[in-house]
Specification:
The structure is a homodimer of 441-residue chains.
Chain A: H1 22-40, E1 52-53, E2 59-61, E3 64-65, H2 66-83, H3 87-103, E4 112-115, E5 121-124, H4 129-151, H5 173-187, E6 209-210, H6 212-228, H7 231-234, H8 240-255, E7 256-257, E8 262-263, E9 266-267, E10 281-282, H9 284-301, H10 304-321, E11 333-334, E12 348-349, H11 350-367, H12 370-386, E13 398-399, H13 419-436
Antiparallel strand pairs in A: 1-2, 3-4, 4-5, 6-9, 7-8, 10-11, 12-13
Helix pairs in contact in A: 1-13, 2-3, 2-4, 3-4, 4-5, 4-6, 6-8, 6-9, 8-9, 9-10, 9-11, 10-11, 11-12, 11-13
Chain lengths: 441, 441
């Protein structure tokens, strides 16, 4: 009995793009993407989520990857807090939050990278990102649970969707908040050595700063602030505004090279570019993602200069990152055009395009410029023609350079219920405002 | 100034395959592949080799990766010992052997994964493979140097090819032999925990055995035995025949599933197949490579049963690993047909095909069967049509599933002067014997 991957070996794209309007995004979110995850990912027996899902939703590996468990908890908690207090959304979040609190950490309170279906540990976290995603998940979950406790909606109010069974109560808001902040506090001193004992670079080697660190720094501070408010930061001796500012300035000051018009993934001290594969690495998807985070931070802190820089850098990123022969954004590039180290460099990934679409929706709202609108349309059309699966829903994760599914998977070790629904939700909201303002019809 | 990759974005294959005969292989080795590496890879200033080479041979990263440094030392030392005592081959080997001995190890005598051009360390070895390749390189170099010292040929007898300068003397046979055996001795107790402090799997996790370990065990024992003889093993308290047998039986007994007709990359204790991505992983290139090693071991130890099993398993491997839509062997597969974890799974890699060609040349010599001949021809035709670069020589490393160059690189972090020249040399020798015996015309 072997699985037949019906997406493999296709030679033509799948469909036409729906119109660029808010309802395309919100309909896809509420009537396609969320239902897919609710139907196939919930582990109603032991909690947590299955994320390794075939094109049709069949589970092909039951291991639980902490990044993805945490991201789905965050997603559903966020929906509950900002969209509507639907009990079923809170229950999905509870399923993962309970699993995370029960099985996610080792005896030192470090988060694992992965555990088995039943929670038995498998792989230790070899950097701080498991911890960062757990912090954001539990902070957002605490906000959702507090809202539910406050209003009496949701918590323990019914069955998990489709299960017919009543699950145990999810963790309390207090419990989740405590672990979120405890984890946040433990991350702070580890940021200069994020891999700890797993660091392969020798101390006397080539010093390189990875953009992922300031990027998750901005993201984490903004998520925790939105979920738990400024008062949470006094518990961990951090000033959220300073924290956001320091991390944004590290990206804009060190990683963004305004002369070269490139956002570099890794830089030497003072923003230098060591002439090696690592020093020349570009990651257009990561660039788009951090740039919208900087726009949102600029909006929140009244830093129009950040927004202006980020919206301009976004154009540099896609103008250089776009594949002029086959369309779509590359996954990795070498800034000098040399062959990239990663074999998958020329593939077209769902998250890269989802993040880019949202970044341009945001940029267009801030600038009103035709250039941002043009790229928003171009990314929208490419992505919906190629990634959306008209037969089984959700988006394909991985396309070849030519824009055809490399395989059919809807979820895996790295693709979960996160980038796509987050981008659909946020893009839908931006487009709705543009439509209300009469800027987009 | 950016590099333009002239291989990227091609839409048609490059050329026709030359005839399947020994001269195709030996001509390519001596008049194309070795000259390419001699022209572009030698770092005549500080020793060692550049391996990051564009399609045309331009160096795009000067870091030195110990696996590839060691493999090129092995290759040129082997040529010197078994083909002809050409001084220029020994000098190429000296260039790398001297660099390895001077810069390859840390203060604990563990080999690095990579160092900078000048030898300054960069990345620690995160498993035992750097050490294994260094052992094989220095053992083979010691044999070559001893031959040269004995005959007075080669050592210090002239300039590095094309440089016009006389290099320093290479390491002595004794020095290289001592470090080879010291490294081999240090590897033995580490084999049950090959990643040491870099192990991410938690002890209570899922126990999985990787085929790479018994595979390199067979390879290392046979290489050291051929280069230094049985007496070298008494220095490290190892019986070479026992060592080869134990490792072959681990592959054939645990990793080869005769019922499923698959060679599994990772297995649980007693050869079980945990139902997860790791437990279902197949790697057809690795399978072909270990199977020819087992055939050679069977030949040497008079174990016809190993040869029979390996030649049969080879057919299972390619019949399942061949892409029936676009041709070529997949890089990775899931034994149940589920989407593989690795994004590059459906790409066609030079080393996979070079190893498969040699494995079938060997199998055909052992069995004389039409099936092995058929696959030899099929692999030969596919590979020479697609991988060989008619414009700049050598082979492309990485093709898309459709069989077109994903980029033009001739060398990189993982592609050096090793798999292709080794396969060309060994295949040429097998085909020559088949031609002499009148089996191949």
């Amino acid at each position: 009995m072997t699985y037949h991957d019906s997406a493999q070996g296709r030679t033509a794209p799948l469909g036409a793009a729906p119109p660029l309007c808010s309802s395309t995004y919100t309909n896809a979110l509420f009537h396609d993407v969320l239902p897919f995850w609710e139907q196939y990912s919930l582990d109603r027996e032991v909690g947590g989520y299955f994320t390794c899902l075939t094109r049709e939703g069949q589970v092909f590996d039951t291991d639980k990857f902490i990044w993805l468990q945490a991201r789905q908890v965050w997603m559903y908690s966020f929906l509950y807090r900002v969209v509507a207090q639907r009990p079923e959304w809170l229950q999905v979040a509870q399923l993962g939050a309970g699993f995370l609190l029960k099985h996610g950490r080792d005896e030192n309170k470090d988060w694992y990278f992965s555990v088995r279906r039943n929670g038995r540990p498998l792989v230790a976290a070899y950097n701080i990102f498991s911890d960062c995603f757990a912090t954001m998940a539990l902070a957002e979950y605490a906000a959702a649970a507090a809202l539910s406790e406050h209003t009496g909606l949701g918590l323990n109010s019914g069955a998990v969707p489709g299960s017919g069974r009543t699950p145990g109560a999810g963790p309390s808001a207090d419990e989740a908040r405590t672990v979120a902040l405890e984890t946040y506090r433990r991350i702070l001193p580890r940021r200069e050595n994020p891999k700890g004992r797993f660091t392969k670079q020798v101390p006397e080697g080539r010093p390189l700063h990875a953009m992922a660190l300031p990027m998750i720094g901005v993201n984490m501070a903004m998520v925790v602030q939105a979920a738990l408010g400024n008062e949470a930061f006094s518990d961990i001796d951090l000033d959220p505004e300073q924290e956001i500012t320091a991390n944004v300035e590290r990206v804009l000051g060190l990683h963004l090279d305004r002369q070269a018009q490139r956002l570099f993934e890794r830089v030497g001290p003072n923003g230098t570019h060591p002439d090696c594969m690592d020093g020349r690495l570009l990651n257009p998807g990561h660039a788009c993602e951090v740039l919208w985070m900087i726009m949102e931070a600029g909006d929140q802190l009244g830093r129009r200069d950040w927004i202006d820089t980020a919206t301009e850098a976004l154009l540099w990123t896609v103008e250089h990152g776009w594949d002029r022969q086959f369309g779509g954004l590359y996954y990795y590039q070498d800034a000098q055009g040399f062959p990239p180290e990663k074999l998958e460099a020329d593939m077209k990934l769902w998250w890269v395009h989802a993040e880019a679409i949202y970044a341009f929706a945001a940029a267009y709202e801030y600038t009103g410029s035709e250039q941002h609108k043009h790229w928003l349309e171009r990314l929208h059309t490419y992505s919906w023609e190629r990634f959306a699966d008209p037969d089984y829903g959700e988006w394909f994760g991985y396309l070849t350079r030519q824009g055809l599914p490399s395989n059919g998977l809807k979820g895996g070790k790295w693709k979960g219920c996160f980038h796509l629904p987050r981008a659909l939700l946020k893009t839908g909201a931006r487009l709705q405002r543009l439509e209300k303002a009469g800027i987009l019809s």
